[in-house]
C-alpha cells in the first residue's frame, strides 16, 4: 500500500542501517510518475512539518520542475507554509543546470537574459541555484551542507527527494549516480530518500542497478494491457490512452528486514484534488513456479508420526494380544481344520493332499485347498499343460 | 561464487559464516567490500556454538589443550598461534554459528584480517596485486598444507565501484584470482549480483569461472499460495540453489539429492539449510493450510 511506503519514509532509518530509499519508476504508457512523486512528497512534508517524522528537514533536488512549483504545491495544501524555510530547501537544477546562462552572461551576450536570471521569487532563502549538474560529488556535498544547515550538526536527520533521476543520469554517468545514492543512504544524517525515474529512457542495467540500491520499488503499470488485435487497435488505443492518463496500477516491492520481499498491488486514480489509492486483491499474478523447483514430498517421519504409525491396526497382521492367530482366508469358520500359525504357502495344485512334515513331530501341517477353478493360476502353472496336441 | 538476489541480504549470512570459520581456525582472511568501512562488518561475525559434550575428544585432554592455549596466548604473539594449532586446536572444526552473539573480540584482534574497501579501488590491477601479496605465503609446497588462507569478496560488481563498468577487467581479475588459488592453499568466496552485470554473456562467463556456484532467491512475504505449497514457509526467508559443486581432482561428479534448499534461522540462532518439503495436496479438499505434519492423527486408516 502507498500508506506503507509513506510510513516507511516517515519512520526513517534505524541506527547502523542504510536509509530506506524509494524508487518510483514510470513509463511512457503510464506517465503519471510525477503525481505519485508529488503524493509522497506531500505526505512526507506534512509529517515533517507536524513533527511526526524522524527527519526534521527535507532537501528537494528539482530537475524537472522549478522550485516555485513545489512551493506553490505545498502552499496549496497548506503544509507548513508559515515556516517553510525552517524545514525545506530546494536545490534548483531546473533553471540553469549546466551553467550556460551564467556563461552567456559572463561572455557579455544579451542583456535580456540578465533580468531573467535575477528574477528571484519570493522564496529566496528556500531555494539554492546549482549550476554544475555534471558533477555529482559537488551536488552531494551541496545536499549535505543544506541538510546539515536545516537540522544542525548533531544527531538530527533530514530526507532527500530527487525530482527526476533520469535528468541526473542524462548529465552524469550511472557510476556517479550510484555512488551518490549510496553515499546518501549511508550518511549518518539522512533519514530517507526517494526519487523518480522514467524507466524507458535508460538501459536495463541502469534501472536494475538503481533497483539494487533501493529498498522500495514502486512501478507504475497501465491497468489494461495493450490489445494486440490490429483491427480494434485504433479504438482501443484511444480508450487506453484516456484511461492511462488518469488511472493506473502501482506495483510495489518492499525489501523487508527479514530478507523477504513484500509485494503489493494498488490501483490509483488521479483526480483534481490529488491521487487516490485503492488496494487491489490480485488473483496471484506473481508466479511462484519460477522460484520453486519441483520439490519432493517429505519422506521422513517425525516421532509423532512414527508413533501414530505403530498404533494403526492393520487387518491382516497379528494383533499380538495373546490370542491365537486366526487368519481369515475367505472361507467359513475353520474350527475343524488344524490351526495354521504360518500363512499357507501356495503349493503345486496337484498336491491337494496334506503334507505332513514328520521332522517336527507331526506338529506342523500344511493344508492346501484350492478354492475354486476360477481362481487365478499360479505362476508355475502352465495352462497349456493339459492340452494334447 | 554466490549469485546474490538484488532484493535480499542473504549472501551476508553465508559470508559471515565463512569468515567466522576462518577466524576460528586461525586462517588469515582477506575481506573486500564496497561498504565504507569494511571493518565494521567484522563486528557482526557470529560466534561459534560450542561443541556438544559427547565428542570423541575426551574432556580431560581438552582441558589440557585449553590450558596450553591460554598460556601461549599470554606469552606469545600471533605467530605462535599457528604452531599451537598443530598441537590440538582450541576449536575443532566448527560449522555451526550462533547468530545472536558476535565473535570474541580477542579472537578478532588476534586474527590476521586484511580489509579492502572496494570503492577506493581505482583499477583492478591494484586489487590483483593485493590478492597475490596476500596469497603468497600459502603457496603450495612439497611439505603439505600448513596453513590455509581465505579470501572473501562481497558484492564484487556493485554499481558504485569505479571498475564496475569494465566487465572484461572484472572477468580477468576473477580468472587471475582463480589461477592464484590453484597454486596456493587458499579458498575464495565471491558474491555478486547478476542483475547489475551489464550483459548476459558476461554473466554466463562469470558463472562458468566458478568452481562451486550457488544462487540465492528471496521469497515473497505473506504469500498464501506459497504457504500452501511449502510446509515451513513461516520459518524460511530465502532459497539457496546449488548449481554446481567443485570437484577439482576427481572425474566423478557430485550428484546431489536436492539442489534447492531453504534458508532458515532456527530460534534466531543458527542458520540452517533444509531441503524443501512440499505439502501433499489434500485430496479430500480439506481447508487447512498446514503441511503434511499437520494432518496426521491417530485415527484408523480405513481402506
UniProtKB/TrEMBL annotation, chain A:
Pfam families: Elong_Iki1. InterPro entries: Elp5, P-loop_NTPase. It comes from the Eukaryota. Residues 351-360 have a biased composition (Polar residues). Residues 349-389 are annotated as: Disordered. It is found in: Cytoplasm; Nucleus. This is Elongator complex protein 5. It comes from Amborella trichopoda. GO terms for biological process: tRNA modification; tRNA wobble uridine modification. Belongs to the ELP5 family. Pathway: tRNA modification; 5-methoxycarbonylmethyl-2-thiouridine-tRNA biosynthesis. Residues 372-389 have a biased composition (Acidic residues). The lineage of its organism: Eukaryota, Viridiplantae, Streptophyta, Embryophyta, Tracheophyta. Keywords: Cytoplasm, Nucleus, tRNA processing. GO terms for cellular component: cytosol; elongator holoenzyme complex; nucleus.
From TrEMBL, chain B:
It is found in: Cytoplasm; Nucleus. Its main location: cytoplasm. The keyword Nucleus applies. One of its GO terms (cellular component) is cytoplasm. The keyword Cytoplasm applies. GO terms for biological process: tRNA wobble uridine modification. Transmembrane segments: none annotated. InterPro entries: Elongator_complex_protein_4, P-loop_NTPase. Pathway: tRNA modification; 5-methoxycarbonylmethyl-2-thiouridine-tRNA biosynthesis. CDD domains: Elp4. It holds the Pfam family PAXNEB. Keywords: Cytoplasm, Nucleus, tRNA processing. PANTHER family: ELONGATOR COMPLEX PROTEIN 4 (PTHR12896:SF1), PAX6 NEIGHBOR PROTEIN PAXNEB (PTHR12896). Belongs to the ELP4 family. This is Elongator complex protein 4. It comes from Amborella trichopoda.
Amino acid at each position: 500500500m502507498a500508506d506503507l511506503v509513506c510510513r516507511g519514509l516517515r519512520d526513517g532509518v534505524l541506527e547502523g542501517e542504510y536509509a530506506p530509499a524509494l524508487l518510483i519508476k514510470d513509463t511512457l504508457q503510464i506517465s503519471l510518475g510525477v503525481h505519485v512523486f508529488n503524493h509522497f512528497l506531500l505526505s512526507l512534508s506534512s509529517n515533517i512539518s507536524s513533527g511526526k517524522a524522524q527527519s526534521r528537514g527535507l532537501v528537494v533536488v528539482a530537475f524537472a520542475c522549478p522550485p516555485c512549483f513545489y512551493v506553490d504545491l505545498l502552499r496549496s495544501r497548506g503544509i507548513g507554509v508559515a515556516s517553510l524555510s525552517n524545514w525545506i530547501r530546494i536545490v534548483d537544477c531546473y533553471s540553469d543546470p549546466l551553467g550556460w546562462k551564467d556563461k552567456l552572461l559572463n561572455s557579455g551576450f544579451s542583456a535580456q537574459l540578465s533580468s531573467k536570471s535575477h528574477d528571484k521569487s519570493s522564496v529566496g532563502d528556500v531555494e539554492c541555484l546549482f549550476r554544475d549538474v555534471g558533477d555529482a560529488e559537488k551536488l552531494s556535498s551541496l545536499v549535505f551542507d543544506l541538510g546539515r544547515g536545516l537540522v544542525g550538526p548533531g544527531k538530527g536527520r533530514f530526507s532527500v527527494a530527487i525530482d527526476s533521476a533520469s535528468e541526473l543520469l542524462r548529465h552524469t554517468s550511472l557510476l556517479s549516480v550510484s555512488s551518490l545514492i549510496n553515499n546518501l543512504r549511508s550518511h549518518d544524517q539522512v533519514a530517507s530518500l526517494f526519487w523518480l525515474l522514467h524507466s524507458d529512457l535508460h538501459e536495463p542495467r541502469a534501472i536494475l542497478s538503481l533497483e539494487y540500491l533501493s529498498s522500495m520499488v514502486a512501478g507504475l503499470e497501465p491497468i489494461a494491457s495493450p490489445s494486440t488485435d490490429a483491427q480494434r487497435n485504433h479504438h482501443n488505443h484511444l480508450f487506453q490512452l484516456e484511461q492511462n492518463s488518469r488511472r493506473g496500477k502501482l506495483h510495489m516491492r518492499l525489501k523487508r528486514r527479514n530478507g523477504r520481499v513484500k509485494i503489493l498491488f494498488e490501483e490509483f486514480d488521479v483526480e483534481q484534488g490529488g491521487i487516490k489509492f485503492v488496494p487491489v486483491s490480485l488473483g496471484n499474478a506473481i508466479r511462484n513456479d519460477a522460484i520453486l523447483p519441483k520439490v519432493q514430498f517429505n519422506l521422513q517421519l517425525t516421532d509423532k508420526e512414527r508413533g501414530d504409525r505403530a498404533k494403526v491396526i492393520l487387518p491382516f497382521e497379528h494383533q499380538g494380544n495373546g490370542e491365537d492367530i486366526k487368519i481369515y482366508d475367505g472361507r467359513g469358520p475353520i474350527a475343524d481344520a488344524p490351526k495354521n500359525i504360518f500363512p499357507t504357502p501356495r503349493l503345486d495344485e496337484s498336491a491337494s493332499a496334506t503334507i505332513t512334515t514328520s521332522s517336527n513331530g507331526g506338529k506342523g501341517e500344511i493344508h492346501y485347498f484350492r478354492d475354486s477353478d476360477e481362481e487365478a493360476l499360479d505362476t508355475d502353472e502352465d495352462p497349456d499343460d493339459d492340452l494334447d496336441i | 561464487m554466490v549469485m546474490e538476489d538484488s532484493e535480499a541480504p542473504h549472501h551476508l549470512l553465508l559470508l559471515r559464516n565463512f569468515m567466522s570459520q576462518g577466524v576460528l581456525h586461525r586462517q588469515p582472511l582477506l575481506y573486500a567490500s564496497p561498504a565504507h568501512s569494511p571493518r565494521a562488518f567484522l563486528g557482526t561475525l557470529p560466534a561459534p556454538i560450542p561443541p556438544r559434550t559427547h565428542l570423541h575428544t575426551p574432556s580431560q585432554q581438552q582441558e589440557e589443550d585449553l590450558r596450553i592455549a591460554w598460556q601461549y596466548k599470554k606469552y606469545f604473539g600471533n605467530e605462535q598461534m599457528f604452531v599451537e594449532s598443530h598441537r590440538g586446536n582450541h576449536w575443532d572444526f566448527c560449522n555451526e554459528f550462533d547468530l545472536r552473539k558476535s565473535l570474541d573480540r580477542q579472537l578478532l584482534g588476534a586474527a590476521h584480517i586484511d580489509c579492502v574497501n572496494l570503492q577506493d579501488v581505482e583499477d583492478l590491477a591494484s586489487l590483483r596485486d593485493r590478492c597475490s601479496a596476500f596469497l603468497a605465503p600459502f603457496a603450495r609446497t612439497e611439505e603439505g598444507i600448513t596453513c590455509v588462507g581465505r579470501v572473501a569478496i562481497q558484492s564484487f560488481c556493485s554499481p558504485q565501484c569505479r571498475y564496475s563498468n569494465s566487465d572484461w577487467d572484472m572477468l580477468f581479475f576473477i580468472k587471475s584470482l582463480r589461477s592464484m588459488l590453484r597454486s596456493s592453499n587458499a579458498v575464495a568466496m565471491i558474491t555478486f549480483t547478476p542483475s547489475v552485470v551489464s550483459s548476459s554473456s558476461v554473466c554466463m562467463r562469470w558463472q562458468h569461472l566458478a568452481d562451486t556456484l550457488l544462487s540465492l532467491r528471496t521469497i515473497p512475504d505473506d504469500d498464501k499460495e506459497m504457504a500452501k505449497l511449502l510446509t515451513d514457509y513461516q520459518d524460511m526467508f530465502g532459497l539457496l540453489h546449488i548449481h554446481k559443486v567443485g570437484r577439482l581432482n576427481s572425474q566423478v561428479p557430485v550428484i546431489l539429492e536436492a539442489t534447492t534448499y531453504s534458508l532458515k534461522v532456527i530460534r534466531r540462532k543458527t542458520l540452517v539449510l533444509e531441503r524443501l518439503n512440499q505439502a501433499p495436496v489434500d485430496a479430500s479438499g480439506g481447508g487447512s493450510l498446514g503441511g503434511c505434519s499437520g494432518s496426521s492423527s491417530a485415527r484408523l486408516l480405513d481402506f
